[in-house]
Amino acid sequence: MKKIPDAELELMMVIWDAEQPVSRMDIEMRMQNGRDVVPSTILSLLSRLEKRGFLRKEKQGNINYYNALVEKSAYLKEEGQRVLDKMFGSSLKNFVTALYDGKGLDDREIAELQAFIDEQAGTERDK
Q: Which domain holds residue 42?
């Protein structure tokens, strides 16, 4: 799966979070940070995503609706692994260290990480 550039990824996040087909106008209204984006720019980005196989466009009356063809979880998993491999030599420890270098973890974050580690350790034992 190809990496989605940031501008297109912002649109994909809106579409994934909608969990149903959305129109260009729906996307404009849901865009984070409330900035004004030219409709033709959104249409151009949507067209690119469609050509690359990330979206499907369905016309209903005079309005095009866009639906994700790639699941958010699948994309995030692959992109996360790509970053982990490329930038941190596949080391989860190096990744976490880079994220929190100089910043202490609070009790909630430590508990979440410990629960995740315990869950993974249990999964490995069950195999």
A: 6-68
